[in-house]
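Weekly puzzle thread! Below is a chain. First person to post its structure in token form gets bragging rights.
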Amino acid sequence: MNQLAVTLVVLLLPGIIAAIIFDKITSHSKWDAFKFALYSLVLGIFCYSLLQAICWGADIVRCITAPLTWSFLSIWNSALQTEYSLRAIEVCFAVVLSAPVAFFCSYLVNHKVFNKLASRMGVSQKFGDENLFSYFMNGVDVVWVYVRDRDAALTYSGQVVSFAENNSCHEIVLGSVRVYAYENSEYLYEVANVYICRPLGSLVVESISDEELVDE
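Winning reply:
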């Protein structure tokens, strides 16, 4: 393996870590190998760019007592020219920064910052990468819900604990659950938690307002 290949692998290391963290804490469509490698590269560049910005900030602070000189990371040169070698300390600091970079990018994605900005500018009405079920369940006002299960002829009222969707079914875990008959809403019983797994399209989920919650 030549030095350029080694350099690229090391360059991707912070990005790989950031991509793994990002993948675990955001809702998005499944990544294939190409997309994961692409995001790893982009997040890795973000990590090194943040480290470069920190170095420049330190240069500005030092200029109070000494002439201003700009420090540049060796990674920019070593990634393109084989005569430059990597500095291990830069890679280590970039790895440390991979978590903050992943958290920041996850915040932008989870709060739909770019989608909201594009919507306000009239550029796009796309809500995000996840499906509508996840988009709805991730809403800040979706805490207490009615889950209407037509197949079991039951209606569940409870607090959303967790949820998931795969290619064949919807999964929801509710806490503080009240169970009613589906046809006439007759109260049946109460349980601490319930796990519901049904084929796609079998469940109807309704958000409960504060007024409805008090009445219940």
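Puzzle host: Confirmed. Bonus trivia for everyone else. The helical segments are 3-25, 33-62, 75-78, 88-110, 113-120, 132-137, 210-215.
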